[in-house]
Amino acid sequence: MIEALDRAESIVVMTGAGASAESGVPTFRDALTGLWAKYDPMELATPQAFARDAELVTRWYDRRRVDALAAQPNAGHEALVRMQRRVEGRGGRFTLVTQNVDRLHQRAGSTGVIELHGTLLRWRCVRCGEERDESGGAMASLPPVCASCGGARRPGVVWFGEALPEGAMERAAIEAERCDVFMTIGTSSVVYPAAGLVDVAIRGGAMTVEINAEATPATGRVTHALAGRSGEILPEIVRRLEVGRHDA
Ligand code: OAD
Q: Residues 77, 117, 224, 246: which is the catalytic one?
């Protein structure tokens, strides 16, 4: 596996919430704890929920936003930066596709990240569409009000039933189809279309690797399923690449 990674001309990595778990960011399925335990995520992450109760929905997203800003990238994020520099340094392609909305990959130093599900750190007005980065403390009024038109503003994440950001899935699928190695990391592999990218890579003939704390629907389909934490396994993979050990 290490040798294939070392030789690959093109690597695609797709991450999910598990890649941020060791930074203390709850995974999507663990996100509703404490005061939020009585809510179903599917009832907060929809346009219908926002239309019904914009204050409740934006309060939940604003808390996640503030928590994401307080979190730090972990050893797994950092290993992916090293992997990208290594592959690109020898003229190869490296594409990081994430379902995460916390921007921890970018803060670690990853570049060109495809954000399939948008980001918590950019909000837009539902009336005039104006977008603004939100990197401050907890918002004073929820939902926040657009300074230009007075409309309600919402997080720039993709909700269930909404389209993915323009071109994001298309670019990810093109890279998955042509890559030599595809890695799926810390995702439950149940939310489509992201979960289908591994099959695009398999059809394209790539070696596929999963890193996950638990078995997922993708586990039986990948070439190598590595059970464990991404913040431990990824640094070990990159260490072996860097010391030139191909015995794994
Ligand atoms: P989930 O919360 O569904 O799954 C997290 C995955 O990470 C699980 O499979 C865990 O076993 C695994 N995991 C947890 N800790 C880990 C660690 N330290 N190392 C490796 N794996 C670990 O998160 P996603 O798959 O990202 O979509 O969820 C996909 C999408 O569903 C989200 O982007 C969100 C959600 O609904 C939208 O909001 C559109």
A: 117
